[in-house]
């Protein structure tokens, strides 16, 4: 079958060729005389429907489009035509990108089987769910993801379409699988599909913003990286992966009455990030992880209710490890804290670490006491990243006068020696009074500091940035190299002291 046109095509009038092998206008057709590989490079500049239209130019052009290694369909509205194009395609298909808008399950099922037969490289399917997502669970259609026997990579952003995985077949060459905004059906099916018997080459698995499965059990000899973010309804997670190096689990506890039970066996794990939902308890069993270098536990509330579930989860992970090269620790201040207790005293120990990434969600509050408490327990660090992520507009305003965040003020006079700290990075820096005060103290504590890098927040103007550069350099010492950046680190404002 020879497709003529497709989704997104713009009708144009063409002069009739003077012969099968000549271009329009009666002149010599030098373009058609070019070899196939050159013509393919030309057609790759076009979207696939337009490239397929060139088949009407002459017999010479009739099959050139079918040699394209890449096919791209933007805002496709006719899924059956996509299937026809794929069936008519002849060359090894290294890349297929399909974009739809508010598609239903049946439209995806119209072309995915053909894609499974044809794609030997990357498959990307993005369903823009501008209509508010798919139907409710009880009413929705479900389509089946066929076995991708030859594809090496698949990324499916489905707009919450219902998805089931083919119960049989081997994804023999698949190394990277990413699923986003999908409703997974048939409990246990995804885990079976990505485990070694059916997916022997899989190295990276990503599942984000999805609903289900309730049970995810993975046994893989090849997996090296797993990212599970925002999985609503996950109740049981089991991973046995001897080659796994990175495990990132965030906010997967979106059920009201059940406890998440997790068991992880990954002896080669290097990076572990585990962010729990504070509303639901969890039971996590971790095997031996002698090679772990980076740990990112759940955030820790500075003020809250005593015996906070969230804080207990964070402390539980911190107690599991005595030595960690790199620790990501997030301290969070609620917008209103007057009726809560100061909880930092519950944090009594940290692993022995070299690099501390201290993230402080201040919500406008004074954070010096909590940050001081953390630094006092890891005074041997050599590198420090101090991050102040933005929340919302109100959060950037200074907290009310008399707020209890100012009650903890002894940190400004207590002694602290950071005699191993050589490098500090601060981002994004807004220049608030609390931030400037803390950085001033940091210069006093870090007696061997060699370099400080400051990246200003987008809200800081160039003139404000230059003023803050001078303020911070006045706190510094001549041997410390200071570097200042704006625009997310792309524009340098001021560098070494001699500048």
TrEMBL record:
<dbReference type="InterPro" id="IPR036047">
    <property type="entry name" value="F-box-like_dom_sf"/>
</dbReference>
<dbReference type="Pfam" id="PF00646">
    <property type="entry name" value="F-box"/>
</dbReference>
<dbReference type="InterPro" id="IPR055312">
    <property type="entry name" value="FBL15-like"/>
</dbReference>
<dbReference type="InterPro" id="IPR006566">
    <property type="entry name" value="FBD"/>
</dbReference>
<dbReference type="InterPro" id="IPR055411">
    <property type="entry name" value="LRR_FXL15/At3g58940/PEG3-like"/>
</dbReference>
<dbReference type="InterPro" id="IPR001810">
    <property type="entry name" value="F-box_dom"/>
</dbReference>
<feature type="domain" description="FBD">
    <location>
        <begin position="415"/>
        <end position="483"/>
    </location>
</feature>
<protein>
    <recommendedName>
        <fullName>FBD domain-containing protein</fullName>
    </recommendedName>
</protein>
<dbReference type="Pfam" id="PF08387">
    <property type="entry name" value="FBD"/>
</dbReference>
<dbReference type="Pfam" id="PF24758">
    <property type="entry name" value="LRR_At5g56370"/>
</dbReference>
<feature type="region of interest" description="Disordered">
    <location>
        <begin position="1"/>
        <end position="29"/>
    </location>
</feature>
């Amino acid at each position: 079958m020879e497709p003529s046109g497709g989704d997104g095509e713009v009708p144009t009038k063409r002069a009739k060729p003077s012969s099968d092998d000549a271009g329009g206008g009666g002149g010599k057709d030098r373009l058609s005389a070019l070899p196939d590989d050159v013509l393919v490079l030309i057609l790759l500049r076009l979207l696939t429907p337009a490239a397929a239209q060139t088949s009407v130019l002459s017999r010479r052009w009739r099959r050139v489009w079918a040699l394209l290694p890449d096919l791209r369909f933007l805002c496709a509205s006719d899924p059956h035509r996509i299937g026809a194009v794929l069936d008519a395609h002849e060359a090894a298909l290294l890349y297929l990108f399909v974009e739809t808008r508010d598609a239903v399950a049946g439209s995806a099922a119209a072309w995915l089987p053909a894609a499974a037969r044809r794609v030997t490289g990357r498959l990307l399917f993005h369903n823009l769910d501008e209509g508010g997502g798919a139907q409710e669970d009880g009413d929705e259609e479900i389509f089946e993801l066929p076995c991708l026997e030859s594809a090496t990579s698949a990324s499916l952003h489905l707009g919450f379409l219902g998805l089931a995985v083919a119960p049989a077949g081997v994804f023999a060459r698949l190394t990277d699988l990413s699923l986003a905004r999908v409703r997974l059906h048939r409990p246990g099916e995804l885990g079976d599909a990505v485990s070694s018997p059916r997916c022997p080459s899989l190295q990276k698995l990503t599942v984000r913003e999805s609903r289900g499965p309730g049970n995810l059990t993975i046994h893989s000899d090849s997996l090296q990286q797993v990212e599970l973010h925002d999985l609503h309804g996950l109740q049981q997670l089991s991973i046995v992966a001897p080659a796994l190096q990175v495990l990132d689990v965030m906010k997967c506890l979106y059920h009201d009455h059940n406890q998440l039970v997790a068991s992880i066996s990954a002896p080669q794990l290097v990076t572990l990030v585990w962010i729990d939902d504070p509303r639901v308890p969890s039971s996590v069993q971790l095997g031996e992880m002698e090679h772990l270098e980076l740990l990112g536990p759940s955030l820790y509330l500075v003020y809250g209710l005593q015996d906070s579930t969230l804080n207990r989860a964070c402390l539980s992970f911190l107690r599991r490890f005595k030595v960690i090269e790199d620790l990501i620790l997030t301290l969070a201040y609620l917008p209103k804290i007057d009726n809560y207790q100061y909880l930092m005293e519950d944090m009594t120990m940290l692993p022995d670490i070299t690099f501390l990434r201290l993230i402080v969600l201040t919500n406008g509050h004074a954070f010096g006491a909590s940050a001081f408490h953390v630094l006092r327990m890891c005074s041997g660090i050599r590198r420090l990243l101090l991050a102040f992520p933005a929340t919302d507009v109100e959060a950037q305003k200074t907290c009310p006068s008399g707020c209890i965040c100012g009650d903890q003020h002894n940190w400004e006079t207590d002694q602290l020696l950071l005699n191993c700290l050589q490098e500090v990075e601060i981002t994004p820096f807004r220049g608030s009074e609390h931030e400037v005060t803390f950085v001033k103290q940091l210069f006093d504590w870090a007696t061997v500091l060699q370099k400080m890098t400051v990246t200003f927040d987008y809200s800081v103007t160039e003139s404000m940035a230059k003023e803050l550069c001078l303020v911070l350099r006045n706190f510094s010492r001549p041997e410390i190299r200071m570097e200042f950046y704006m625009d997310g680190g792309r524009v340098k404002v001021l560098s070494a002291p001699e500048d």
